[in-house]
Amino acid sequence: MYFIEILKAIIFGIVEGITEWLPISSTGHLILLDEFVKLDASEEFKEMFFVVIQLGAILAVVASFWKKLFPFSVERCGAIHIRKDIISLWGKILVACVPAAIIGLLFDDRIDALFYNPQTVAFTLILYGVLFIIIENRQKNREFRIRDVGGIDYKTALLIGVFQMLALIPGTSRSGATIVGALLIGVSRVAAAEFTFLLAVPVMFGASFLKMVKLGFPAAGREVAVLLVGTAVAFFVSLLAIRFLMSYIQKRSFKVFGWYRIILGTIVTLYFLI
User: Fold this and answer.
1) What phi, psi does 251 have (nearest 5°)?
2) Which of 103, 126, 180, 188 is the most buried (most CB within 10 A)?
3) Which tens digits make up the pLDDT trace of 163-183?
4) A Gene Ontology MF term for this entry (predicted)?
């Protein structure tokens, strides 16, 4: 029985690691997976489990983009050098965090009560899938105003943060919402994806911390092992998913993810109707 729970944790970790960074909604997939692969644990533990395995995914971003996130370095003479461009980037990231942080703090419980269900996930999967296809068709021959993360100014960062608020509704996808918003305001695919990854660091750490404070640590004994396994798997799978997406979008559009969302959302809708 214990082995089965470990196996379930591995499955959840794989799904989290893949879907957290592809614009197809990790929360939506975890909600749907939970319909079929039930952890033998309390609702409090499962809620915390879904939060903590996200920390595994976010640590993969820190590992992948460490040089772009850490502004301090030690020179040969022993002096500490501070990179002003990275400090400025952190300022833009924090500005982009503000809109979702305010709405999340004020309405987190209400949003969960209203929208944390498979029906909402199915609807938002289809909606944003259609938006991805429409926006990519519009962007086909467009010259992007901002081609790299360094070109994102504070105004653009704030606008991306406004789009990130949409991801508070399950099934939207945090990366999907910010990438769609960034594309609409003239940010290239590569810059949009990279800024989305960097933005995830404070957002997900903050959200996870608040959830942990709210829930405490409702895990003991074997549940701790299940938690650690899921988190570790999410970390290693995320490393691969991030590398894949950054390579994929160098030459390809996000339309394939749009079609995937539409197909999955349709299947989910039909499943619950039947």
Assistant:
1) -125, -5
2) 180
3) 998 888 888 888 888 988 998
4) undecaprenyl-diphosphatase activity
